[in-house]
């Protein structure tokens, strides 16, 4: 599931996520790096941190997915493990290879933004608000390059999608302004 439209470090992050090799607290406990008292999620939601909880079920980070779905113009709820979640999100893009790639790129961006914020909580005792995290997703993880690559991927086959979704229309004009 390597994506040309995202940086190599993000691809490696996703690969490690699918293998359950990220340094989540449950994996650190298994490796003997932390003890059981350090297992609670960095968001202080009261649950133990594993990759499923952190990225999809956490009371804090789990709220990001409905906001992203709303931004994309969808109402569906995504459920399941990492693979199920990835397939459900990818399939929102329809059958076009380019649109599926764009949706996976957005999905990947959301996960990486969550991971970066989680690490900011742990190592710097700081965090972004849910609104700021959503804004980072909306503009491609605050990277102009990622933002442009997502939109270039979208233009490969789903212009009709852009026209039918008001927010994507805004992104189209923002893309033209940024990439001029």
Descriptive labels:
single chain, disordered C terminus, 180 residues, mainly alpha
Extended strand count: 0
What is the gyration radius calculated from CA atoms? 17 Å
Low-confidence stretches: 141-146, 156-164, 169-180
Helix content: 55-70%
Head-to-tail CA distance between termini: 31 Å
Whole-number tally of structural domains? 1
Q: Tell me the quaternary state.
A: single chain
The geometry reads as globular
How large is the count of helical segments? Answer: 10
- Tell me the strand percentage band: under 5%
Helix/strand/pairing class, anyone?
A: mainly alpha
Order of helices and strands: HHHHHHHHHH
How would a textbook summarize the main sheet? none
The pLDDT mean sits at: 82
What does this entry look like structurally?
Helices cover 62% and strands 0% of the residues. The chain is mainly alpha-helical. It has one domain (8-178). The longest helix is centred in the middle third of the chain and has 28 residues, at 97-124. The chain starts with 7 loop residues before the first helix and ends with a helix.
């Amino acid at each position: 599931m390597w994506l040309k439209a995202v940086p190599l470090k993000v691809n490696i992050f996703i690969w490690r996520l699918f293998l359950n090799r990220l340094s989540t607290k449950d994996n650190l406990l298994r490796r003997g790096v932390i003890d059981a008292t350090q297992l609670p999620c960095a968001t202080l939601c009261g649950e133990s941190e594993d990759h499923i909880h952190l990225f999809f079920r956490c009371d804090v980070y789990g709220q990001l997915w409905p906001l992203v779905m709303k931004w994309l113009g969808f109402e569906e709820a995504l459920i399941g493990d990492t693979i199920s979640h990835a397939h459900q999100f990818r399939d929102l893009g329809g059958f076009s290879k380019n649109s599926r790639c764009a949706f996976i790129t957005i999905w990947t961006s959301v996960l990486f933004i969550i991971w970066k914020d989680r690490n900011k909580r742990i190592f710097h005792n700081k965090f972004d608000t849910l609104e700021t995290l959503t804004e980072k997703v909306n503009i491609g993880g605050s990277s102009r390059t990622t933002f442009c690559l997502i939109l270039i991927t979208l233009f490969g086959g789903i212009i009709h999608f852009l026209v039918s979704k008001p927010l994507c229309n805004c992104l189209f004009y923002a893309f033209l302004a940024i990439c001029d």
